[in-house]
Specification:
Blueprint: H1 20-41, H2 47-70, E1 77-81, E2 94-101, E3 104-109, H3 119-125, H4 134-141, E4 145-147, E5 151-161, E6 170-171, E7 176-179, H5 182-189, E8 197-206, H6 210-216, E9 220-224, H7 227-231, H8 235-245
Parallel strand pairs: 4-8
Antiparallel strand pairs: 1-2, 1-9, 2-3, 3-8, 5-7, 5-8, 6-7
């Protein structure tokens, strides 16, 4: 049994979706700049040309990811673990990124069950009263808990639809938010919580530049999240369906697979 400690989050709103055009525009400027220099310096293909192109592409890729991080662009995105993932704790993981800044990133694994505690036990540990009526008990027993990540597994986080907002709710996108207080658990137990929700214990965290480096090492693919995939898809289908949105067949992946 774990002892759960819920904590409050300050209200934040990320407008990453509205900044995509600026990001891609900056990327195009970088590509154009290096192509012009390439043509001017190396009009005839050589070994040096190939090396130069490789270095330019690496620089553009790193710069692009840095731009994304500064804009919080990966907030509200899904990370999809690739076969090249060396950390077994994240094997086949799908992670919803709650926040991503220059200082680091925080997200929740959304496709792994927590098997050492159930929802009624969690309510009992937190001294939350709930009805013992048959229909309500069935409702509570059917609520699953997820392993949000290896960091601070004693903390609880509820990823949910944005129809439920408290003072401490973290607004991630127009449709998805996160709350980490006992109040939302009480509301869920009383069948008065958000329409969609996912309860996670623990979280996944990255320090400055760590997530960007993992993406460069082909550990993750990224894709825009949607409520159907996050809240209403069976756990074992989340990864293949997310990859299918990218046009990728999970059976065709290898540890050498690159980034999208």
């Amino acid at each position: 049994m774990c002892t759960i400690l819920f904590f409050s989050c300050k209200i934040k709103s990320y407008k990453a979706q509205n900044e995509r055009k600026d990001t891609f525009q900056k990327t195009r400027i970088l590509i154009g700049f290096y192509l012009v220099n390439f043509i001017a310096i190396f009009p005839v293909p050589t070994i040096i040309t190939i090396i130069y192109i490789s270095e330019c592409l690496i620089f553009i890729k790193v710069s692009w990811i840095e731009i994304l991080a500064k804009q919080g662009f990966l907030s509200g995105q899904l990370l999809l673990a690739m076969p090249g993932m060396t950390d077994t704790r994240f094997e086949s993981a799908v992670i919803y990124i709650c926040t991503h800044t220059e200082e680091g990133a925080m997200g929740l694994v959304i496709n792994k069950l927590c098997d050492n505690i159930d929802f009624p036990d969690l309510l009992n540990q937190l001294n939350i009263d709930y009805s013992d009526e048959t229909n309500t008990s069935f409702h509570l027993d059917s609520i699953t808990l997820h392993e949000g990540g290896p960091v601070e597994s004693g903390r609880g986080f509820i990823l949910h639809s944005a129809d439920y907002v408290q003072e401490t709710t973290l607004i991630i996108s127009e449709t998805i938010a996160m709350t980490a207080t006992i109040d939302i658990l009480t509301a869920i137990a009383g069948n008065e919580g958000p329409q969609d929700y996912l309860i996670a214990l623990g979280f996944s965290g990255w320090g400055r530049g760590q997530l960007e480096n993992e993406i460069l090492r082909n550990s993750w693919l990224t894709i825009e999240a949607d409520e159907e995939l996050v809240f209403r898809t069976d756990l074992d289908l989340k990864l293949p369906r997310a990859l299918a949105k990218l046009g990728v067949d999970i059976r065709m992946l290898s540890s050498q697979f690159g980034n999208a």
